[in-house]
């Protein structure tokens, strides 16, 4: 019924292939739907097939309990409120639940009451984004937007073709095109947002998630300018991504020695950053080069030993 609903219909053979059943089973199911009062009918001959009465819509969504519960997670209250859609999200959720049979409704509300998403990291506070709703409206309506953007101690004006919004760790970013370049703008730095009086130019094949992933990886790589060589214990090698970041840890180690230690060529942000990061590996790291980094790590160790003597 869901395959046919809202469409031009289909042949029994095509339905059988899509559903993984025999043509005979399709015809038995059509008969069962007709007996249940669903206005489904068949037409023979060229251009014929199985169809639902034009304009007919089922009041049943066909969703399972798990699917309904998962749908409730889309309306994460914090994000909806940030976008100025808190009331609308609550209303839509109430209407959706009102259409559901009681068992599905109960399961969905259980998920809502027992799962909370706290996006910002520990010890962080969410950005203040008074212009997020206006930016989001430009994104959703496909309108060119003119923003004031805080840069350093001043404010610059930019006219942008918005492509999408990204929420990362409680921080909102606008992805938009400015003078042919696709860039990201932290929404908390937007000081004003107004309609620029034209439709946005948005490529039809733009993939927001793919662009963000590639952009984030490229940004991480651009920071890694300090080469160093280290020797790591098995535990330190396993902990390396959490200490220096996934992109910096995306390296191939040399062969392990008798104790399981490996040599690794790394590129980190800067020497002072490397000292701070590698110190977190404790006794599981030995710096082989450069000598200045080795001395820096030794100085930290000496200071720790002195203070804890």
Automatic annotation (TrEMBL):
Membrane-crossing residue ranges in chain numbering: none
Pfam family membership, one: HTH_11
Residue stretches making up the WYL domain: 131-194
InterPro entries linked to this entry: CBASS_pafABC_assoc_protein (IPR051534), HTH_11 (IPR013196), WCX_dom (IPR057727), WH-like_DNA-bd_sf (IPR036388), WH_DNA-bd_sf (IPR036390), WYL_dom (IPR026881)
Start and end residues of each WCX domain: 227-303
Segments forming domain Helix-turn-helix type: 1-47
Name of the protein this chain belongs to: YafY family protein
Organism of provenance: Rhodococcus olei
